[in-house]
Amino acid sequence: MQDQPKKSDQDIDFGVLDEFLGYRLRRAQMNFFAKFGEVCEDLGISPGLFAVLAIVERNPGLTQTAVAQALGNDRSAMVAAVDKLESKNLLERRPAVNDRRSYALFLTAEGGRFFDNAVKRVSCYENEMAKCLDGDEEKQWLLNALERLANKSL
Amino acid sequence: MQDQPKKSDQDIDFGVLDEFLGYRLRRAQMNFFAKFGEVCEDLGISPGLFAVLAIVERNPGLTQTAVAQALGNDRSAMVAAVDKLESKNLLERRPAVNDRRSYALFLTAEGGRFFDNAVKRVSCYENEMAKCLDGDEEKQWLLNALERLANKSL
DNA sequence: CTAAATTGTTATAGCTTTCACCAAACTTAC
DNA sequence: GTAAGTTTGGTGAAAGCTATAACAATTTAG
Lengths: 154, 154
What we know:
Two copies of one chain form a homodimer. Chain A is mostly helical. Chain A has a single domain (22-150), classed as Arc Repressor Mutant, subunit A. In chain A, 58% of the residues lie in helices and 6% in strands. Chain A has helices at 21-39, 47-58, 64-71, 75-87, 109-129, 135-151; strands spanning 91-95, 103-107. A two-stranded antiparallel ribbon of chain A has the order 1-2. In chain A, strand 1 (91-95) and strand 2 form a beta hairpin. In chain A, helix 1 crosses helix 5. The longest helix of chain A is centred in the last third of the chain and has 21 residues, at 109-129. Residues 1-6 of chain A have low confidence and may be disordered. Chain A binds a DNA duplex through residues 46, 48, 63-65, 73-80, 96, 99-103.
């Protein structure tokens, strides 16, 4: 009754966890986050900062809150993010033309080059990760399923 | 040149983000995390604590580090988690039989009942979320794809 | 026995979320 | 038009969770 059978890592019963989408999503996302860190280590940006650059690059002039809403983050999270990107000379806060409360965000020239380079790296490792999927067909299916789950309400 | 076209929330160009598995995984997982919080609000446990209970329930006597490794967390994260679960009388630290450094973790009787109840709730909302998938077939495919992504190495 | 590895722990830092706050903008009523 | 209240944008402080590094006690390897 006291001799536990010395379970190895593979030997563990995950029970209901194995059937829960929430848990599996977390594990998959943790792996992606870790791989992102490896690939972009020297660039000094996190997935969150990368996402901010991506939104601002395609939608120049957006306010901080607009970017936050687009990414599903809180407004307050944007302060430190934009501060950091601005200190790296990648992003620029300009006063908004018709609203003195808000800033309009723009990529700097350096930010544009930086982002292009980062996209290359991220695309590269994304493609590598997607190799465990069955071709572009399954990847598109997966992207679609994930979008449905992200927007599902109870 | 200065009149930005007043983009609404739906009007934003996500660019490369839309094709990145990492981003879509994050969005989907954020939604699951939020829904978990709604459903289990009065229970006072997070997805992380739920996962600890699930592992200990199916693998009684595991050490803290073994649970951490199973869940992909750091050992140090387990301290606060077990502290919290122990203060709720759901989990118990017993001295390990053959290693005075480590504890063996067990669910208390109350912890067992609590977990059963929590599983009912989480299963319920998991099923609700899965309704945006095409039957059990697509769910199983998705679980499988997520497992592949979680274990893929570069 | 000595050196290396392991367990639980603490401290520290980073990131994210929540709350309250102030200034600016908007809405409504005069 | 003005003046009141309300909403919104950015910010800062506090709380939460996670990851990293270091540490003492203990176990294991050589």
